[in-house]
Design a protein that fits this description.
- GO terms for molecular function: S-adenosylmethionine-dependent methyltransferase activity.
- This is Methyltransferase type 11 domain-containing protein.
- InterPro entries: Methyltransf_11, SAM-dependent_MTases_sf, Thiol_S-MT.
- The protein starts with 6 loop residues before the first helix and ends with a strand.
- It has six helices and seven strands; from the N terminus they run αββαββαβαααββ.
- It has a seven-stranded mixed beta sheet with strand order 3-2-1-4-5-7-6.
- It is 38% helix and 22% strand.
- The protein has one domain (7-222): Vaccinia Virus protein VP39 (Rossmann fold, 3-Layer(aba) Sandwich).
Length: 223
């Protein structure tokens, strides 16, 4: 039988296979690195994720690093498009006694009703979404009035610093490895201009060998 596969079909299949491979790599990477990442971010997570409600929406929960901050018996509505993350995420939810409502959706279109969430959380996610402004608008749409968006993100370092130079040099291989993650996004400005009623935000730096990852923000925005 003649091969009727087009060049576009082959490219699409190749890209799909590469995306799947990177998704599996990232699931393994974040599962293995969870204790190390948690050690660096714990103090900030404890502050930002304090007193979460009984039901929380998380954008990009990955392998479940933030489930430890939810009370046992609560529910996580998990918006996670990477199927390779789903198994570890379910295991983590069971381990922490948290109910899991798993949605294989993109953060730009969660499919959740307007004004249906008291709290949305994210950590290390806005760096890799297609359009942070669209995602932040989606978060505002699903939050009830007075609801909170609680976040921790790594961001672009100030211009002229060694860290910013490293972010610029490593931008392409970093993005390829970590599913489109950009280490040069000004996510603080994105959150500040997203239209939330109020915002508290903290800039901080962690010290790791992963230099592009070392500049961070954490905060709480209120709808």
């Amino acid at each position: 039988m003649a091969d009727t596969t087009t060049a576009d079909d082959r490219t699409t299949a190749f890209e799909f296979s590469q995306h799947t491979a990177r998704g599996a790599f990232n699931a393994t990477f974040f599962r293995v690195m969870d204790p190390y990442i948690e050690h660096n971010l714990r103090r900030h997570k404890q502050r930002v994720f304090a007193d979460l409600p009984a039901e929380v929406v998380e954008i990009g929960p990955g392998v479940g690093a933030n489930l430890r901050y939810l009370a046992a018996g609560s529910t996580l509505v998990a918006v996670e498009p990477n199927r390779s993350m789903h198994g570890p995420l379910r295991d983590a939810a069971q381990r922490y006694g948290v109910g899991l409502d798993l949605r294989e959706r993109m953060a730009e279109a969660t499919g959740l009703p307007d004004r249906s969430a008291d709290s949305v959380i994210s950590s290390l996610v806005l760096c890799s979404v297609q359009d942070p402004a669209v995602v932040l608008a989606e978060i505002r749409r699903i939050l009830r009035p007075g609801g909170t968006f609680r976040f921790l993100e790594h961001v672009a370092a100030p211009e002229g610093t060694t860290t910013r130079a490293a972010q610029r040099i490593l931008r392409r291989p970093w993005a390829w490895t970590f599913e489109g993650c950009s280490c040069e996004r000004d996510l603080e400005q994105a959150v500040r201009t997203a239209g939330f009623e109020s915002l508290t935000i903290e800039r901080y730096r962690i010290r790791t060998p992963f230099l592009p990852f070392n500049t961070h923000i954490a905060g709480v925005a209120r709808a």
